[in-house]
């Protein structure tokens, strides 16, 4: 579906005599938002008929921008009351609007709910029907909490996942040899007469290695979620007092020459035949965190990214825009809630798959 829109837009641009290059980020962000919307709320939020969908998309997008901006008041707390960059004001406005919209979705679901109705359940149904077993949680989940959980899924799930696909594509375009290997693997396993499917993914070890290498080199959440020490701690010769905020720099760990050979080169091959994985057990690769607070969306992200990446590469041959060459592709990073490419990837798709999913 998203490869179809890429092809349609590129073809329409070409027919108008305009550039056929597409901004990949746009398609990835909308695809991710739609997937999360469908899983959480069974809604095509970006469908033209969806009244609040686009407004919600924008409100969540702005919320992540405000959340990712370095706040001067964190370093100079006496300025807190002034809100010198207007971050709190903007955050309250956009987050407030996003909450209002989700609240509307939740109310609508409760009003339309028919007991014992037989239909596939989405995440919202599951949250509404949940009842604690009396051990960890006694009762039903209050509606205010349901709204926050749903919102967290959109905020935590959309940007991080679309970002990693964009980085992977950028790295593969910089390394034509690696791109060639992904294509060869896809040709062998899937061919060009049908679309790649989820079931194919386990037969694509090089593609899986590309994902691991991209997560090592460009972890979308570079400092994980901040921790606080609950008591005085001595760790590797350092004394960390109680109540200290601790950040885990997975970006630096991924580039540490003590952990990785030739860490500044993008080499998916390093993971072929290696048992190192990102599931929280190998501490040199923890882009999803580790332990109790490990990313709850890790397996979902893995499925979406691998299938999304495989579809992009199977459906199209990608070319850089005129004047851009692999060696000088801009790979600078933009600081935010997720570390994105500073300059979005504009690339030209040339269709290679015979039939395209609609
Ligand atoms: C490549 C994609 C993703 C990356 C790299 C990523 C990374 C992370 C990281 C590093 C954390 C914090 C873990 C820690 O501090 O130990 C986190 C938390 C979280 N992630 Fe993800 N994530 C991704 C995709 C997703 C998706 C698709 C969803 C859901 C739709 C999701 C939902 C969450 C939630 C709800 C939390 C908070 C968990 C908590 O509060 O304990 N993430 N993620």
Automatic annotation (TrEMBL):
It comes from the Eukaryota. Pfam families: p450. Keywords: Heme, Iron, Metal-binding, Monooxygenase, Oxidoreductase. SUPFAM superfamilies: Cytochrome P450 (SSF48264). PROSITE patterns: CYTOCHROME_P450 (PS00086). Belongs to the cytochrome P450 family. This is Cytochrome P450. The lineage of its organism: Eukaryota, Viridiplantae, Streptophyta, Embryophyta, Tracheophyta.
